[in-house]
Amino acid sequence: MLNLPSDLARDFQRLRERITRKASSAWFRERRQELESLAPYDPGRGRERLDQLLATASTKVPYYRAFRDREHLSLGDFPLTRKNDLREHFVDFISRDATGRMAPGAFSLA
Known about the structure:
Blueprint lengths: L5 H18 L1 H14 L4 H18 L22 H6 L22
């Protein structure tokens, strides 16, 4: 143990208490409540947005077109995508319109 001058030891102790307090679950809970009060999460709206995203992916992204005919898509229906999948099927992950074409200027390999 270091033999520190009393004022430095006191500062050190305050810093230690502050770090411990911030690392406690109560501190994180308080911060989370603050954030949630600023922008409350609406589970219904979140579900609606996720459903819309999955529907768009299944209709516009060639890699996910196999899921197009399913009535109720869930995130669990989609395969886990690994880095190697992106490397091997990169072009298939780019969304396209109904004709199968990419929007002009939407993507560039340059």
